[in-house]
Write a structure and sequence with these properties.
Layout (H helix, E strand, L loop, with lengths): L24 E5 L5 H8 L3 E6 L3 H11 L3 E3 L3 H5 L13 E4 L19 E3 L6 E3 L3 H12 L3 E7 L8 H14 L1 E9 L10 E9 L7 E3 L5 E3 L29 H7 L8 H9 L8 E3 L15 E3 L8 H7 L13 H7 L3 H14 L7
Parallel strand pairs: 1-2, 1-4, 2-3, 4-7, 12-13
Antiparallel strand pairs: 5-6, 7-9, 8-9, 10-11
Length: about 350
Amino acid sequence: MHLFLYKWYLKNGYPAKGITKNDYNVFGTFICGGGSTMGYKLAGFNHLGGVEIDPKIASVYKINHKPKHLFVEDIRNFVNRNNIPQELYNLDLLDGSPPCSSFSMAGNREKDWGKKKVFKEGQAEQVLDDLFFEYIALAKKLQPKIVLAENVKGLIQGNAKLYVKKIFKKFDKAGYNVQLFLLNAASMGVPQKRERVFFICLRKDLAEPFLYQQDMFTVNPKLELKFNERKIKFGEFYKLGIDDRPCSKGKMFEYWQNRIEGDESFCDTIKRTEGVERCFTNKYLYSNKVPMTYTSNSDVVYLFDEYRKPNKIESCCIGSYPQDYNFFNVQYSYLIGMSVPPVMTAQIATKIYDQWLSKLLT
């Protein structure tokens, strides 16, 4: 039995069954559709709202979460506000997932570092890799007890490790001790092999009860994040719902017909049958395996057993999104792929509550 259900409904309310409500407050940044918001609520926290730059996404967030505070603006503008509500200072937890495409192993990586880009249509031009430091600047200003930042695995690979060192230094100057975790959602009750990096920081003045000596030079706040929930294969919810993303039977169908067991992507199929490499991002989804990372571009994922893409119910299960979430006028695959799976956040939040927050000031 999993601590949190991957197939659940907003109508059933918060927190999740078997979880006790607590009095700790969370505020989010880069909140997108509210994956993390729902995770904290499932774990019993109060979520006060957040900052989101995209008006279209923010409207969907507002419909589903009815936040107390919602700021539809660039985080750089929010950091410089002089009228931030008082209850957002000295928060229990500040959460954020700064845009991470510059560090994804699937992207241009170093070629894009330091360049201004438009993250999505209608948004301001930004240097995406600088937004992490804007987030840390907000933490320094608000001084929450705990800060959590989520990002892609590529952040700790190759030359990006130098960027991580800079992040550690910035958090240190902002007044926080930092731990870095690489976590896989598949071990946390999410039907998805989603590996993500989490920076979890405890304010230095609160850290003393939790300190441990890592080596003779380094002292860190002790937080243990170990998860070993049963892995969930796609077959457990395969064929729930209807085919709502019909696929044209053109060239992609021809490729799909040539697939054999073991092909992970269309590229594997094409390389074997035509001797060339293309369609790297077009993946197969096997019913007897845990689904791969569900991304905002999951329109390129095709079922191995059936020529179609995962439907809405299946996609919500993969992302541990509620089945009755109102996606309004946003494609559900995009919003789910952009979000931290709610169950992933709920698992982490539960550990933070048990090991840190419940013991602070006692």
